[in-house]
Every structure is written in structure tokens, then in C-alpha cells.
Amino acid sequence: QVQLQESGPGLVKPSQTLSLTCTVSGGSITTNYYYYSWIRQPPGKGLEWIGYIAYSGSTYYSPSLKSRTSISRDTSNNQVSLQLSSVTPEDTAVYYCARGEAGTFGSWGQGTQVTVSS
Asked: Fewer Cβ neighbours under 10 Å: the N or C end of the chain?
């Protein structure tokens, strides 16, 4: 059974870059045909999909966040990473990584709180 665990700083200053890592166990991140997404939920709001990296290494980002987002992977450590640049307090949220086949999110990490504040 696959497990996903998010990690990273809980506090980021405005204008800095938010960096999170998702460590995957129980399955290789290169296994066909899984996609690893980053999703966030701001306080009091719904879920917002940020982007994914596919089993092939290809990436796709939400148009609204594309200019500030980068998703990469480390296959040797079975990790997927998120970088979100030029953060503002509006980027405060619980950030999740999730795995699924195209269009689905079958497995989720527990999420990690990130607060953007000076």
C-alpha cells in the first residue's frame, strides 16, 4: 500500500519560495501510470489543485499558479518536490501530495500546514 508524507517548513516569509517534499513509500514514483499532484486548501476554502508530475517525469501546472510553480522529482529517494515562488499570505494553506491515475487522487498524504507571514 502506497504512503505519502509531506514535509517542509511550516513558516515562510512573504516574497520567499515555499519548498515542500513528498516522500513516497510502498511504490516507485516511476511506476506506470501514476501522477503525483500537489493540492492545497487555504483556511475556510476548498481544495485547489496546483499541478502534477507524471510517472514519465512530465509536468503540468494550474494556469493560475503556473508562473510561480515548479514540481520536480528525485527518483533515487522516491520523492516529489514542490516549489512555489514569491509567496504572499494568500498562499497560506494545508498542502497535500496525492497519487492517482489520470484524473484521480486515490492516495493522499496527511498534509502539512504552511503559513506565509513576516
From this structure: N
